[in-house]
Design a protein that fits this description.
This protein is α/β, with parallel strands linked by helices. 36% of the residues lie in helices and 17% in strands. Strands 2-1-5-8 form a 4-stranded parallel sheet. Strands 4-3-6-7 form a 4-stranded mixed sheet, with no helix packed on it. The structure holds iron/sulfur cluster.
Length: 197
Amino acid sequence: MKDFFLSQKPRIGISACLLGQKVRHDGGHKRDLFVTEILSRFVEWVPVCPEVEAGMGVPRETVRLVGNPSHPRMVADRSGKDWSREMEAYSRKRLEKLSSMNLSGYILKKNSPSCGMERVKVYGKGGAPKLKGRGLFARSLMTALPLLPVEEEGRLNDLALRENFIARVFAYHRWQNLLSGARSPRPLIKFHKNKHY
Ligand code: SF4
């Protein structure tokens, strides 16, 4: 059987602004050099901007997380519009599609009330915000696909975390390819013997 792993690049979901797409609230982007100049050669991207795809537009009012850090709401800064329901409904639908795309990893934009993986600001009644939130889309993603290797672009500047993420992505990609082939002991033994990611 043809070695699928050698013929396909891992498919990785990514916050679209990290690829240089102008989807931020101010019409700008957050192009990440490691992602675009290096990682792009080895993977296929699936760019996603939850706020644009949920219908918030560009440019748009900024939003923040408010309330209980475990289940915060997403609220617009000036108008006070609560986007939580729209974002959660959008995330459910989008993740149905993403679940069928055989993603091998996901890179999220840090600090975002939609995409942030951890330590996103959550505002309460006065006082300093707590760095205990997770973006609403990121939360849905990590709940729907719990085995998927996920990282933030900021943490990928740490060489140990970067290496760990890449190893997880390529190991997961090989595992997905193993599961897509014939179920027999030989491919499983080969998978465990192969030290290359
Ligand atoms: S952080 Fe997420 S929601 Fe914000 S612009 Fe980037 S992709 Fe869109």
